[in-house]
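quick one: thymidine-5'-diphosphate bound model?
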Amino acid sequence: MSGWFFSFEGPEGSGKSSHIRALADYLRSRRVPVRVTREPGGTPLGQRIRELLLHPTEGDWVDRAEVLLFLADRAQHVDQVLRPALARGEVILCDRYADSTLAYQGYGRGLPLDQLRALIAFATRGLQPHRTFLLDVAPEIGLQRRRQGGGMDRLDAQTLAFHRRVREGFLALARAEPERWIVVDASKPWDVVQRTLREHVRRLLGLPEEELSKPDDSPPRGAR
Ligand code: TYD
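yep, here:
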């Protein structure tokens, strides 16, 4: 496999999606073949799983059923999108991946991490990101941004204590595997965060520095 697999993690309202879009635009401007994708919902079937999982009211899932749906989405995504893109040498920017399962279903819901890791290995057949960016922000700030930005889905609407556990989970995962994780302070202004992401990816891909273009001064509309 010759491509690069970057995943982006973080609590609600960390601005992942707008940063991924802007990073993709930057990389395309540097003629890098980019594939933007997300979980859940990176395939047509996965999109239907996403609708089931994130529906604001139909949410009476038992925890094990919920995690198995996230993993079904992931298995589909790995085989149909991620592995083929890597084989073509593309740079994948993936909005959430396996670490979300460990943070939300493990640290958040309390499912055993070792069992989750075994299920993730089964679903992904061992595919791991080359680097994972954590856009870290306190849940109070993230949830406030999310409320201002529009609707809350079923997982956004969990308690603050749940979101605190998720954040601590991400930070613990990052501490345990520092060679893979890059933690970025997402409470900083949008353009500072974007510049940091571009600089990391530029270096990892070995793109020359002089062409580093300046991010827009303001976030795109609807950025969160
Ligand atoms: P999304 O709207 O993509 O949230 P965000 O914009 O915050 O990324 O919804 C994805 C939700 O699903 C989010 O609340 C995190 C949750 N999730 C899990 O609980 N487990 C998982 O394995 C994944 C991939 C996501």
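The pocket of thymidine-5'-diphosphate is lined by residues 12, 16-17, 39-40, 54, 70, 95-96, 100-101, 104-105, 153, 155 (CB under 6 Å).
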